Amino acid sequence: MSASLTPDVPTLLVKIFGKDRPGITAGLFDTLAAFAVDVVDIEQVVTRGRIVLCALVTEPAGGTEGELRATVHSWAESLKLQAEIISGTGDNRPRGHGRSHVTVLGNPLTAENSAAIAATITRTGGNIDRIFRLAKYPVTAVEFAVSGVETEPLRTALATESHERGVDIAVVSAGLHRRAQRLVVMDVDSTLIQDEVIELFAAHAGCEEQVAEITASAMRGELDFEQSLHARVALLEGLDESVVDKVRAEVRLTPGARTLIRTLKRLGYQVGVVSGGFTQVTDDLKVRLGLDFASANTLEIVDGKLTGRVIGEVVDRAGKARLLRRFAAEAGVPLAQTVAIGDGANDLDMLNAAGLGVAFNAKPVVRRAADTAVNVPFLDTVLYLLGITREEVEAADVAEPA
Ligand SMILES: [Mg+2]
Question: Where in the chain is the domain with CATH 3.40.50.1000?
Fold first, then answer.
């Protein structure tokens, strides 16, 4: 029997449905083996304890199809399973041009949103080839494998749906590169951690309001990042350096941060952070979390006091993208195989430069510009965008506790 099947070759589709238990698959193929058929395709899923097993096999030789049908039905009946056998020809039609993975994160995932997403895929000319669940906790994550439409128009159509419905939909093109992603670079403030580090320092210096005012002014576009950084750091002048340890202790990791990093490290990824904040905090995070790279601005400290200045080149919007490129070069990873995660406008260049840019609980302007957006407050959901399932994450944790 040749490996590829011509479309006119008669085939039998055997579908088994019922309560799952060990031995069903073995039993079916044992039954079919008596007729010396070849297996063309097998798909099996188990949902809430019920199995759907589909086997596509060649027609049995010598006109024994009737006997095969009777034998399969009686085997199925003996196990209280339903069997359906459909005659036809050939295999699946070849999948259309253009392949994408559509990951949907719902909290909860409603039937209405599922209907809208599927209808949008159909409207763009796409076909859903497979659907499977990546996670049921802390969010429901499902992946649709779609063919027949290019990734860009599919992403554009689904972005509108995502925005209107408040459900996260990430569209990435399928192919080997998705498995080859090897470097993840994250922003720190409001991405890896829940806090803005400058605000933690400001609280100790009693200048929270002034700092907030400068931040707001920068957001209105009246100051660029570098000007606003200098203005805010100047307000910290005279602060005792013992505050650095206090701030380090106050930093709260984003839920899922440890899971994300631990899992990426197990998969052989290199992981880094870039921050418009301060090395006094990012260096500590690097050690605590086992990161490969960390870069940020450095607060100048002289005679045990903050001087209100930063040392060296400022890490700003362009600087973050530059650092992503530098980390990628040092890690020996092509830029196309990098993932960047961030929430702010000064992450945009980095998100655009990376192979996959993920806007994490970002402002609308960032969300619109990024390849993908995650709006649930769990950093480990980024793993689902890479096609990693919750089960795989948990199995690795059981095998090697953190
Ligand atoms: Mg940020």
Answer: 183-196+252-399
CATH 3.30.70.260 boundaries in the chain: 10-89, 99-174
The active-site residue out of 20, 30, 41, 189 is 189
Active site residue 187: yes
Query: What SS3 state is found at 23?
Result: coil
30 belongs to the catalytic site: no
Task: Show Cβ contacts of residue 35 under 8 Å, excluding neighbours closer than 6 positions.
Answer: 60, 61, 64, 67, 68, 71
For ligand 1, an ion, list residues with CB under 5 A: 187, 189-190, 343-344
How many Å lie between the centroid of ligand 1 and the Cα of residue 388?
A: 25
CATH homologous superfamily, domain 183-196+252-399: HAD superfamily/HAD-like (3.40.50.1000)
Q: What angle do CA 57, 58, 60 make, to 5 degrees?
A: 115
- What CATH class is the domain 10-89? alpha beta
Question: 9, 10, 180, 5: which is closest to 85 by C-alpha?
Answer: 10
99-174 CATH fold: Alpha-Beta Plaits (3.30.70)
pTM metric for this prediction: 0.86
pLDDT tens string 60-110: 998 999 999 999 999 999 999 999 999 999 998 888 889 999 999 998 999
C-alpha–C-alpha distance, residues 229 and 227, integer Å: 5
